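Lab notebook, bench 4. Still working through the backlog of constructs that have no structural model yet. Next entry is a single chain of 396 residues. Request: give me the structure tokens for it.
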Amino acid sequence: MRARFADRASRDHFLRDNIEAVYHTLTDGMTRFVRLEELVRCAADAYPGLVPTQAQLSAEAARPLKAKLGLEIDQSLLIAHILAEPRCGTHLCHAMLLPRREATAALAALDAQGFVDLGPVRVERHGRAAHLLSSNPRYLNAEDQATIDAMEIGVDTAILDPGTDIAVLRGNPVEHPKYAGRRIFGAGINLTHLYHGTIPYLWYMQRELGFVHKYLRGVATPEVLPDDVNGFGIEKPWIAAVEGFAIGGHCQILLTMDYVLAASDAFMTLPARKEGIIPGAANLRLPRFTGDRLARQLIQAERRLECDSAEGRLICDEIVPPAGMDAAIDNTVAMLTSAGAVGAIGNRRAFRVGVEPLDTFRRYCAVYAREQALCHFSPALIDNLERNWGAGSRTK
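Model written out:
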């Protein structure tokens, strides 16, 4: 299939009319599972002009966000159209839920020594629990391009580890003078790196379709569609331990957890308005925890929630003294595994099929793919980062 693309509108029109044929070409008739990162590379080769080439992306990556040309918006059109088409979009979701190849070596290391160090992420066995510890100490454990692959490999490893029945997500101590030596759950996206242009558009989609979705739905197998009705993957219950704060993306993650422990002095925010981006899948998930009005206040009006408040307890299951988090984790692990893992996982699936079936997630991500790209390359995002976060004065 040959096509000529004069502008973005012609690309969009072509994809609207031909998305099934395009996706079949890129996946050999859906006989191969192709991750997003490879999918956009294949599309650039198979359909010249449809999405940016690797050379164009490399040049774009060297520019700060305010100087970027917005070429990656064309990637968003491709991804949005794939996700909007039910069969293609479901196949892509399935592909992104498969374990990373690197998880095989990580599992071997974990089995041999009881831990595996992936740099920004460390997985440790503590009895029957796999502890996944995030570590980006200079940036308050924020997420960026340097953490995303390690986090997904770590999530795969924790879920697939046969020596544990449950997983715990926790932040490691940080270096920031205000919090030096304290464990921090996480500060969301690294706004300094975002401003300096080192976080590409594809990062958002890789994150939502990858490790964040795996917290919720587990790791898939190639043979079975993990939609909970026709089949399911491999999963474990997840406990989050919120210390310090859960800002932005880290607050989003709490919405995928089975049990949230929070220190009594911790807080949560979703500062999407001050940033000018969409907070992942929080728009889909948050209203079922807090109701629509409070969700809008959090996302659109910068409302802060103290974990130890009536509203905070809509998201947090248990509030503990800051010094008591280790004991609280141990007690919660014992409580959630006392009746065996089978029932806990079965209940996860039963809840999930009612509140967020795979098709609902797919449809949401089709919208998110397009709208997040427009936000990412909007001049308003630069203005917000400079005005609200002083990003222009921060160095990488």
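Notes after review: The radius of gyration is 21 Å. The mean pLDDT is 95. Flag for follow-up if needed.
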